[in-house]
Amino acid sequence: MPERDFESIYKDYSRLVYWAAYRVLSNKEQTEDVTQNVFITVLKSMGEISALSDAQLKGWLYRVAVNAALDAKRRAGHEVLSDEPVGAEVPDTTGTPEEQVEKDLLRTAVREALDSMEEVYREPLMMFYYSEMSIKEISETLEVSEGTVKSRMSRGRKILARHLRAKGISYE
Questions:
Q1: CA pair distance 32, 17, nearest whole angstrom
Q2: How many domains does the chain have?
Q3: Backbone dihedral region of 94: left (phi > 0), alpha (psi from -120 to 50 degrees) or beta?
Q4: CATH number, position 107
Q5: Are 167 and 116 in contact (CB under 8 A)?
Q6: Are residues 29 and 61 part of one domain?
Q7: Are 133 and 141 in contact (CB under 8 A)?
Q8: What is the pLDDT of residue 78?
Q9: Within this chain, do residues 101 and 159 fall inside the same structural domain, yes or no?
Q10: CA distance between the termini of the chain
Q11: 110 and 64 in a common domain
Q12: I want to staple 59 with a disulfide (CB 3.0 to 4.6 A). Which of 13, 99, 124, 141 is the partner?
């Protein structure tokens, strides 16, 4: 097990924590607050987490982020959450305006599809694509077999593709 310091944990896992929280909150400011709070928890728990393997640490961070985001959502009550996608404040200047519109439509359609999907299919897809977790890490985090993760991801991708086709969006 490699010796870890706070900076290396933050560098390696801040993206995972951010996306796990964002998936629950869909709000940039709240997600940033939760991410900060998760890493304060990491600082306080450095002694305990130093014995964890990389996969265990990743799973622990994911769960702490999701739980912290759920707590923040409960505290916020019925506050209307922003529908602003992450990174909206920094426009993507690559491509033509038409290409940018197509990217935005695809991004919105994917978000809608993920939002409408059952959690059992959405969670492994989010962990794999947004948090960059491996099948094995997802399996350990969700406490299901790797085959179950693969099956859920396959079904989730089919649901996503069906949703995109229904919207008339080509994603290939």
A1: 10
A2: 2
A3: beta
A4: 1.10.10.10
A5: no
A6: yes
A7: yes
A8: 45
A9: yes
A10: 40
A11: no
A12: 141
